[in-house]
């Protein structure tokens, strides 16, 4: 019984840590999403091809997302920054490429089947891609991006 009492606070601490991280990750994602949505809809509506609109939107959201997440996870020192940017960049670029494929496919489909709702269909593909990637990115950011050894010991 004593052992259970000492394990419970550790589990609560770990649970509490993940809820804190998830809520802050969601907030950072909301900021990035808001910025990228405005950029995507504006650029696509003004005539940018879907892949170009996706890249522009990605650029608009990636920078604040990285900075906010780095603050949340307590990124490493200046020497660790390059690796964090590189790992975050790879995850972010893969997500953007998936979104570019999804929006391009949706654009071709919408042009033939839903011409009046083309922007909405393509935007739905863009949002859907990022919604699916939210969980995957959280795990990758937590386990691969911000990996300062001194922080890892305190987990």
Automatic annotation (TrEMBL):
Compartments (UniProt record): Membrane
Claim: Membrane is one of the keywords in the record: yes
Keywords on record: Membrane, Transmembrane, Transmembrane helix
Keyword Nucleus: no
Domain GtrA/DPMS transmembrane, first and last residues per copy: 24-146
TM regions (residue ranges): 21-40, 46-64, 85-103, 123-146
Pfam families, sorted: GtrA_DPMS_TM
Primary residence: membrane
Membrane topology: Multi-pass membrane protein
Protein name: GtrA family protein
Organism encoding this protein: Saccharopolyspora rosea
């Amino acid at each position: 019984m004593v052992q259970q009492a000492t394990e419970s606070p550790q589990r609560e601490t770990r649970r509490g840590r993940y809820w804190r991280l998830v809520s802050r990750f969601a907030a950072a994602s909301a900021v990035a999403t808001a910025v990228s949505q405005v950029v995507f809809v504006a650029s696509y509506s003004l005539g940018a091809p879907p892949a170009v609109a996706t890249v522009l939107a990605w650029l608009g959201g990636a920078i604040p997302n990285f900075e906010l997440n780095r603050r949340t996870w307590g990124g490493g020192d200046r020497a660790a920054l390059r690796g964090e940017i590189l790992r975050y960049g790879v995850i972010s670029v893969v997500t953007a490429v998936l979104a570019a494929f999804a929006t391009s496919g949706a654009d071709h489909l919408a042009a033939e089947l839903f011409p009046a709702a083309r922007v909405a269909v393509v935007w739905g593909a863009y949002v859907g891609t990022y919604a699916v990637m939210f969980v995957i990115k959280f795990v990758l950011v937590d386990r691969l991006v911000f990996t300062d050894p001194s922080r890892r010991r305190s987990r």
